Amino acid sequence: MHTQTGTPVRPALAPDPLSRNATASPPRPDHLPGLECLAPLTGEDVWLQDALLGPFSGDVLEYLALARATGGPVLDLGSGAGRLAVPLARQGFTVDAVDRDGRSLHRLLDRARRLGPRVRDRITATRTDLLDLRLHRPCQLAVMAGSMIAAVPPASRARVLREIAGHLGPHGALAFDYTAHDAVELAEHPHRAWSFEVPRFDGITEWVVARQDFDPVAMREHIAYAIERSEPAGSRSSSVTTAKWIVNSLDLHRDLRAAGLRVADERQYRLDDRTRSVLLVCRSDT
Q1: What is the β-pairing status of strands 139-144 and 74-77?
Q2: Could you give phi then psi for residue 225, rounded to 5 degrees?
């Protein structure tokens, strides 16, 4: 799902709930519509990752509340650098963090160590792709935060969901979010572009031009970042790209049923005039 120069970009929930009768409002200046999280490949990419995650930190509170309601242990699928796993461990939950990016997992464990053994000892980190997921112990809450479901090919989605469902404990739940697009708007405006400065505090100025391209026929999304970094010694350019799947709600609910899961709760959040983030809480049918 990612090129040699990039890693998956993943949407997170916006903090403002969307009521059924609410009217659309323009995005905030610091809001990056359709943008998400960038798992770092190098130390410098951490700055961009934090900039992309900043506007969406409200989803951490959502998942913490779900963990309190269901109990632990918690399975954090697509954990990245621990944006969710570390707060969960600080709140006393045992966390199995799973991600395919080794650098992100190292950063997660470094963060946990700095917080002390009581946090670090609650986290187990496993490097694997979701398509190769083989679970060995039950959990009370499985989480796929930041629209990680969009990184799973539709042909493999029911199988991955079935693997998770088979390891949910009594009254356990799977919670995940995804970005829902307006199909007509997507077909009429499949290309989006914007630029922003990355906040850095190390003497380097970093500007990014992002381009988002949708293919509604293939149900694919591609995002490319052109990065320009300036420092006293000169300027450097780099690029990061990512590809993921556009999630169709009807197909997703079909796959959940095939995996033996039912939707127990659904919440919607506005990202911009054209997109919403949907949070689903699913439980086993058995």
Answers
A1: parallel
A2: -115, 125
Pairing mode, strands 220-231 and 205-215: antiparallel
From residue 232, how far is each of 42, 161, 214 by CA, in Å?
Answer: 20, 50, 38
Cα 229 to its chain centre, rounded Å, is 26
Distance CA 217, CA 101 (A): 29
Structure tokens belonging to residue 211: 């381009």
Q: Please give the Cα distance from 68 to 56 (Å, whole number).
A: 21
Surface-to-core class of residue 178, CB atoms within 10 Å of its CB (0-12 exposed, 13-18 middle, 19+ buried): buried
pLDDT digits (tens, 9 = 90+) for 46-57: 788 777 776 667
pLDDT for 110: 94
Query: Cα–Cα distance between 241 and 181 in angstroms, integer?
Result: 20
In degrees, rounded to 5, the angle at the alpha carbon of residue 161 between the alpha carbons of residues 38 and 163 is 110
Q: What is the per-residue pLDDT across 14-47, written as a single tens digit (0 to 9) for each?
A: 323 333 333 333 333 333 333 445 555 677 777 8
Q: In 121-204, where do the E strands start and end?
A: 123-127, 139-144, 168-181, 191-198
Quickly count: other Cβ atoms within 10 Å of residue 279's Cβ. Answer: 19
Residue 267 is which amino acid?
Answer: R
pLDDT in tens, 184-237: 888 999 999 989 999 988 889 999 999 999 999 999 999 888 999 998 889 999
